[in-house]
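Reminder to self: tokens first, then the designed residues, so the page reads top to bottom the way the pipeline ran.
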């Protein structure tokens, strides 16, 4: 494997991990520290979309599994499972994420921790329920 075929990425759990570059597969959300709000927002919106795609695949494909999705995507089954939680964000919170209106500090890692119930999500974020 040549150097150009390998790229380094950050896993959600932390740490640097070289993985083969496969342009046909979607990678797990990358965790990196950035101060640029537009980059953070783009990463968050991409992670929400990824979680929705993977959950849809799991629900619509009887032979799909978390392990298979993780292997194809170059991440751990835990990362795939965590991404599923983003698929259950309340619609107005997804809209707030797209528009950059979530409270400061609520990025991908913090949103993984939210409960599935929409009322609890608003409560944990300190936002009024719309």
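Designed residues (130 positions):
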């Amino acid at each position: 494997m040549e150097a150009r075929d390998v790229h380094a990425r950050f896993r959600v759990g932390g740490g640097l991990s070289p993985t083969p570059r496969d342009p046909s597969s979607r990678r797990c959300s990358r965790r990196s520290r950035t101060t640029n709000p537009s980059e953070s927002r783009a990463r968050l919106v991409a992670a929400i979309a990824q979680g929705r795609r993977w959950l849809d695949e799991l629900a619509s494909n009887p032979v799909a599994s978390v392990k298979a999705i993780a292997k194809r995507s170059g991440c751990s089954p835990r990362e795939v499972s965590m991404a599923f939680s983003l698929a259950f964000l309340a619609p107005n919170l997804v809209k707030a994420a797209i528009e950059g209106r979530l409270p400061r500090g609520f990025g991908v890692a913090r949103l993984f921790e939210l409960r599935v119930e929409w009322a609890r999500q608003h409560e944990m974020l300190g936002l009024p329920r719309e």
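Residues 49 and 87 are 7 Å apart (CA to CA).
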